[in-house]
Model the fold of this input.
Amino acid sequence: MNDFIDATVEQFARDHTEAESDLHRRLREETYRVTDRPQMQVDAIEGRFLKMLVRLTGARTILEVGMFTGYSALMMAEGLPEDGRLITCEIDPKAEAIARRYFAGSPYGHKITIRMGPALETIRTLSGPLDLVFIDADKPNYSNYYEATLPLLKPGGLIIVDNVLWSGKVLDPQDADAHAIVAFNRMIQSDPRVENVCLTVRDGMMLAWKRSL
Ligand SMILES: C[S@@+](CC[C@H](N)C(=O)[O-])C[C@H]1O[C@@H](n2cnc3c(N)ncnc32)[C@H](O)[C@@H]1O
Done:
């Protein structure tokens, strides 16, 4: 899904990005075959970018808010060192069942802990410090996820937030999700606790780097 870049240019970028592993390709195909909203899954470029960010930041402790069938979690787990850990939050048991199967079939799956239940409740049980947070769940709660996880993030840690351009609907928000994302972007833009950059990767990714205050 990318409404901002010409489809042929997007394909060129994909053709010049490290290919998906066979496991990731099968996970993508199954997700598109058996789930109602497969487009929620990050694409191959964003997945690779997440893995690259994990590597570049040297993250060892990651929290993901919104696992779905596990594509992004598996990508980030690949970028973690052997003793690295990723906690991922989900509420949908059907998505969980698929993710568990693919995690079990991956040499990186043992780094992932699934926490079922509303993410805000799970976050309340965590103590940190976290090195990296990936927020990709229900849009009306984006600001709440951000506020709940920022105190757990180490100074110099990174929060990555997906879908911040919402297919361009942020320019003329008409529904609750679009309004929530506009408010979230505005809040981050004026937050002195972080340095931020809004990227036009896929559906828009916000990177917020936590300052030492
Ligand atoms: C956009 S999808 C995540 C996609 C995933 N990162 C990937 O790349 O495959 C959002 C997921 O968040 C889950 N979700 C929605 N509300 C939630 C909540 N309150 N707590 C935890 N997960 C939630 C949904 O069930 C859905 O699977």
Observations:
- The first helix runs from residue 7 to 15.
- The beta strands are 61-65, 85-90, 112-116, 130-135, 153-162, 194-199, 205-210.
